[in-house]
Amino acid sequence: MNNLFRLALAAVVIAVLSACATPTRDAEDAERAAEREAAAEQARAEREAAEARGLGRDRDFDAAALDDPDSPLAERLVYFDFDRDEVKSEYMPMLEAHAAYLSQNSGARLRLEGHTDERGTREYNLALGERRAQSVRRVLNLNGASDDQLEVISYGEEMPVAFQQNEEAWAKNRRVELVYESRR
């Protein structure tokens, strides 16, 4: 009888522990629903904030947007891979915003300054910096910026922002800087 009692007690303990270990289906569904609702609310808040910064459908930008750190116009650097002049897709939204600003402000002027890292000859790097700046110019032109609003210049390796001789420094130096000479 003692063994039978112990066996029954062990079965009850196992049943209670296993019931506590797995959440109910209703609790899992409620948790998923709460996560979906939180994600939807966050997306709604981000969309409203973007529209408040001037990123709505009409994408009207004013000169103040150039100094607003939350505006895509505040971003003015395009980085390139080693020995490449193709604009990466990650920079397209920012360049489209600059093109929209330029098309809405015919008096605005933008200088595109091409830079390279130190590897390569001086002549090669000047040509590569020029190609990089011209690539950015093409993207801006295709998105509405007028060609007479844009000036291209290449500094090659002459104006580094990082002076170490490693990949991290070289990556920072492979860039095109967007410099507004006139904002309206």
Describe it:
By secondary structure, this protein is α+β, with helices and mostly antiparallel strands. It has helices at residues 2-21, 25-52, 92-104, 122-142, 167-173; strands spanning 77-79, 109-115, 150-156, 175-182. Strands 1-4-2-3 form a 4-stranded mixed β-sheet. α4 links the parallel β2 (109-115) and β3 (150-156). The radius of gyration is 29 Å and the shape is elongated. The protein starts with a helix and ends with a strand.
Which residue ranges are poorly predicted, with pLDDT under 50 across at least 5 consecutive positions?
51-59
- What kind of oligomer do you see? single chain
Helix- and strand-based class? Answer: alpha+beta
Number of strands: 4
Strand order of the largest sheet: 1-4-2-3
Shape: elongated
**Average residue pLDDT:** 83
What letter string, H or E per element, gives the SSE order? Answer: HHEHEHEHE
What fraction of the residues are assigned to beta strands by DSSP?
Answer: 5-15%
| Spatial gap, N to C terminus | 96 Å
Note the main sheet. Answer: 4 strands, mixed
List the helices and strands and how they pair.
Layout: H1 2-21, H2 25-52, E1 77-79, H3 92-104, E2 109-115, H4 122-142, E3 150-156, H5 167-173, E4 175-182
Parallel strand pairs: 2-3
Antiparallel strand pairs: 1-4, 2-4
Helix pairs in contact: 3-4
Summary tags:
single chain, 184 residues, alpha+beta, four-stranded mixed beta sheet, 5 helices
In short:
This protein is an alpha+beta fold.
